[in-house]
Amino acid sequence: MSYLEIILIAIGLSMDAFAVSITLGLSVEKPSFKQYIMPGLYFGFFQALMPFIGFSAGTLFADKINMFEHWIAFVLLGFIGGKMIADSFSKDEEKSDTNKFTFLNMLLLAVATSIDALAVGVTFAFFKINIFISIAIIGFTTLCISTGGVKIGNIFGARFKSKAELAGGIILVALGVKILIEHLFFQ
Asked: For every one of its 187 residues, what pLDDT tens digit does the chain have, with 9 covering 90 and above?
């Protein structure tokens, strides 16, 4: 797996956090510096932690299912991406609430938006990659995108939320298909 693919995965994974960050930006009239950076720190940390946990668990049984890793990557990325695509068409809107930046709320949002990264971490166990560089890329990408999401949400409103989820889902599905095609036809 190349660094470009890891960057694309990082962008795809960060789209949930980006969508939530837009919502957080909508919830305050004039965000403070702390409100801009807090989602990025929470989301970036958990988006980096979850692939590491998934990678660690995946390496325990990677040798036992090595013949199927491309199918597992395809199914996991396809499922995650498909769910993001479906969610992008959902009409559920969160109520605006200025207390969204509390510790507990941010922690719950960070965990909820990073569950898909756990599955991606499992797929990383099947490829010869440096997990520490990968999670650094994922964490930093999410930090930057989430911080930008608060600003965008504050400026432009909710109209980009579903487009961000749709783009992230398409990226993850496309990477899953690419991995499957590479392993079936080019190895």
From this structure: 889 999 999 999 998 889 888 878 877 778 889 999 999 999 999 999 999 999 998 888 766 766 776 787 788 778 877 877 887 787 655 444 456 788 988 998 898 888 888 888 988 988 878 999 999 999 999 999 999 999 988 887 656 666 766 776 787 788 778 878 888 888 6
Q: Give the three-state DSSP class for 141.
A: helix
**What's the predicted TM-score (pTM) here?**
0.72
Structure tokens at 82: 């498909």
Residue partners of 105: CB distance under 8 A and separation at least 6: 99
**Would you give the DSSP letter of residue 29?**
S
C-alpha separations of 69 from 7, 32, 74 in Å = 20, 45, 8
Q: What does 162-182 look like in DSSP terms, one character per residue?
A: HHHHHHHHHHHHHHHHHHHHH
